[in-house]
Design goal:
The complex is a heterodimer of chains A (374) and B (290). Chain A has 2 domains: 7-128, 2-Layer Sandwich (Phosphorylase Kinase, domain 1); 133-373, Transferase(Phosphotransferase), domain 1. Helix content of chain A is 36%, strand content 16%. Chain A has 13 helices and 13 strands. In chain A, the strands form 4 sheets. In chain A, strands 1, 2, 3, 4, 5 and 6 form a 6-stranded antiparallel β-sheet that branches. Chain A has a 3-stranded antiparallel β-sheet with strand order 7-8-9. In chain A, helix 5 runs antiparallel to helix 7 and helix 5 (148-168) crosses helix 13 (352-358). The longest helix of chain A is centred in the middle third of the chain and has 21 residues, at 148-168. Chain A is elongated, with a radius of gyration of 21 Å. The termini of chain A are far apart. The model of chain A is unreliable at 309-374 (pLDDT under 50). Chain B is α/β, with parallel strands linked by helices. Chain B has a single domain, classed as 3-Layer(aba) Sandwich (Rossmann fold), CATH 3.40.50.410. Helices cover 27% and strands 24% of the residues of chain B. Chain B has helices at 40-57, 97-102, 142-157, 180-195, 232-240, 270-282, and strands at 13-20, 60-61, 64-65, 69-77, 80-83, 94-96, 106-116, 120-130, 169-174, 197-198, 201-202, 204-209, 218-219, 264-266. In chain B, strands 1, 4, 5, 6, 9, 12, 13 and 14 form an 8-stranded mixed β-sheet that branches. In chain B, strands 2-3 form a two-stranded antiparallel sheet. In chain B, helix 1 (40-57) packs parallel to helix 6, helix 3 (142-157) runs parallel beside helix 4 and helix 4 runs parallel beside helix 5 (232-240). The radius of gyration of chain B is 18 Å and the shape is globular. The chains are: A alpha+beta (374), B alpha/beta (290). The interface between A and B is large, with 46 and 39 residues.
Chain lengths: 374, 290
């Protein structure tokens, strides 16, 4: 497999003056002309031109004459389905009006990048730049100013987005707070990094497995086994983040107490739940939602560590649809599970998000079919 | 399962570069036909500076540089081992990567040939930050250098945040053979280092012998039978190097390391040296494999 450029190679290609970069333009590739006419914005305090890096790409921020764009320059050959997946994501976004997805365009043979004396055109992904902070940075800023109300709002926005994604059957594949953007105001959170994101129609992804420590089920992180595509691969991370935000809304001083990398919990808490001071504290929370979520999550981690069984995946293999359901505050602290089945008519209706959130329900995963009891 | 952790700010990695700065490192790289006149010390320095820059590039995050790993830089020559960090980082044993990137020793201007879609190949001037300069002095106190590396690793392992980290990786680059006393010490210290561990496995010690122009190339020997007969230097480096852990076999790619082989190369060309240094930092996700 041919080598892919390093960040220094991409930087060389992109730091040329506006209009002088070697993009392959053409019909339908106007976004590349836009990038070429723009300037790459260096992050403050960094010695590098790229402003972030992910598992699959270096990300450059570009101010074009009309807007801000993110240019994702790939670190290795893209999975064979990436171009088609990007096309379908953008189409799905437009059709469904998904506010949690950003415009995303894949361009083959887009940017000429030399690696020494050998050069060729490499693909890039151009995306609209979402103003605001990443979820991690936003939560940190709010926690430091003890802004409980805004943290609660963030948790609610998180819950709403996850339920919308569930209703739309959109799977991100690497849910972690650096991949989520928080726009100013009250608008929807926005997912970033679509290297493993799928919209309905895709039943697998041809990408390597991801392990964002602190958001991946301990069964995976402990074994290092690639989990493959699973329609419920987001569930664990979604619940970890929900618990984190709900707990921070209750006790902002928890930020940074148990982790410097994640929102609230470290990989160690998830992998060694019985040794976790964080779980002890959260389970004892006066906030019923927090204590319930903490209890359920700890049980999940515990059982995965003891038995190697993955309950969430077991749920996912069932034929019926499942919904991610936020835990209403009226729920008893020892209610058993977070994930449950929901009837398709609830899932299919956009307003179901509100309905689900407002239902005074209890949840029991042991029931085979209709498991929402009012 | 060991060696599954990637570097992260909750569990940073540690890379310890141990670099031979003895007099022989001032000689040219045998077989170098580029006419560049690059000295071995200079070449090793360039490789390590490049890999530091690349580790930094992988730590760029939306809120600045992330503290995903620490680096120690030990040189040895004359009668002692010492930290190679200079200027603002002078005297430090272990430095977090964000601090390293923010405090380069200087900027080096290099003329490079670059492919260009219109003009073919063009010459461009590029500037690179660097953190230490080539050095080549007297003897080969290898044992002392490894003692220093062990002390650094032991102190680093005391921190609670490092208990689950990818284990420390020591990359030892030398072109020489120490005297008998240092040899025994180096061997003992290498064993001591390899016995240090985190919950993610034992520390890895990679030995890279840069060529003296005489010996045969030897890549990742599987057993002492692969070593040139009666070569004390080869025996020492073989004994010092870690065995490739089974968990990392799939990461070795084009290096072609056989299962059970030692992480050691001798008299290899410059490209092989660069590849192995890069591999040493890529296994934990601090860089990407070539």
């Amino acid at each position: 497999m041919a080598a892919y450029p390093s960040s220094e190679d991409y930087t060389y290609a992109l730091e040329k003056p506006a209009g002088k970069r070697h993009f392959k333009s053409g019909l339908g590739r106007e976004m590349l002309d836009e990038v070429n006419a723009g300037s790459i914005i260096r992050s403050t305090g960094s010695k590098y031109l790229h402003c972030a890096n992910g598992n699959f790409a270096f990300i450059y921020k570009c101010q074009t004459p009309g807007r801000l764009l993110a240019l994702r320059c790939l670190r290795s050959a893209p999975p064979s389905d990436l171009a088609e997946r990007c096309r379908q994501i953008t189409e799905f976004r437009t059709r469904q009006g998904c506010k949690y997805l950003a415009e995303c365009r894949y361009f083959d043979d887009a940017l000429y990048v030399p690696i020494g004396t050998q050069g060729q055109y490499y693909p890039v992904i151009a995306m609209e730049w979402v103003e605001g902070k990443t979820l991690l940075a936003a939560a940190e800023a709010l926690a430091k100013t003890r802004n409980r109300r805004a943290l609660k709002n963030l948790a609610d926005r998180w819950s709403t987005m996850i339920m919308e994604m569930t209703a739309h059957q959109v799977v991100h594949g690497d849910l972690q707070p650096d991949n989520i953007h928080v726009p100013p105001g009250d608008s929807s959170l926005v997912l970033l990094d679509y290297d493993t994101l799928v919209v309905p129609g895709f039943t697998e992804i041809k990408s390597p497995g991801l392990f964002s420590e602190g958001y991946v089920h301990p069964m995976y992180s402990r074994s290092g086994i690639f989990r493959g595509f699973d329609p419920h691969m987001d569930d664990f991370g979604a619940i970890v983040i929900l618990l984190s935000l709900r707990a921070l809304a209750q006790s902002p001083e928890f930020f940074g107490r148990w982790t410097t990398q994640n929102l609230l919990l470290s990989h160690h808490d998830l992998e060694y739940p019985d040794q976790s001071n964080a779980f002890d504290v959260l389970e004892a929370s006066v906030d019923a939602q927090v204590s319930h979520l903490a209890h359920a999550l700890r049980q999940e981690c515990r059982s995965a560590c003891e038995t190697g069984q993955l309950r969430f995946a077991t749920c996912a293999r069932a034929e019926t649809s499942f919904a991610f359901v936020d835990v209403p505050s009226s729920l008893a602290p020892n209610a058993p599970l977070i994930l449950t089945q929901a009837s398709p008519d609830i899932l299919g209706i956009p307003s179901s998000v509100e309905r689900l959130a407002n239902l005074p329900m209890t949840i029991d995963s042991s029931l085979p079919s209709s498991t929402i009891r009012q | 399962m060991a060696y599954r952790r990637t570097v992260g700010s909750d569990h940073p990695g540690l890379f310890v570069f141990v670099i031979d700065c003895s007099g022989s490192m001032a000689s040219g790289w045998p077989g170098d036909s580029s006419g560049s006149g690059l000295k071995k010390a200079q070449f090793v320095c360039t490789i390590v500076n490049n890999v530091i820059r690349e580790i930094g590039a992988n730590c760029v995050g939306s809120a600045g540089l992330k503290h995903r790993c620490d680096i120690a830089l030990i040189g040895y020559e004359g009668s002692s081992a010492f930290n190679l960090w200079a200027d603002k980082l002078s005297g430090r044993d272990v430095v977090p990567i964000p601090e390293i990137i923010q405090n380069p020793l200087g900027t080096l201007s290099r003329t490079e040939q670059k492919a260009d879609p219109i003009e073919g190949v063009i010459e461009v001037k590029r500037e690179y930050n660097y953190w230490f300069e080539p050095k080549a002095g007297g003897g080969t106190p290898m044992g002392q250098a490894l003692t220093k590396a062990r002390h650094i690793i032991e102190a680093w392992l005391q921190h609670e945040t490092h208990r689950d980290s990818f284990p420390p990786v020591v990359i030892h680059i030398t072109d020489g053979v120490p005297n008998q006393t240092e040899r025994q010490m180096a061997s003992d210290e290498a064993n001591a280092i390899k016995s240090l561990s985190t919950s993610d496995g034992n520390a890895l010690l990679i030995t890279i012998h840069v060529p003296d122009g005489y010996g045969q190339t030897l890549l990742f020997p599987l057993s002492p039978a692969d070593l040139p007969a009666g070569d004390a230097s080869a025996e020492l480096l073989y004994q010092m190097a870690s065995v490739l852990p089974n968990e990392l076999i799939e990461t070795t790619g084009t290096l072609n390391v056989r299962p059970g082989a030692r992480l050691m190369i001798m008299n290899a060309d410059a490209m092989a040296v660069k590849e192995l240094v890069t591999w040493g930092t890529s296994t934990s996700g601090a860089t990407r494999p070539d």
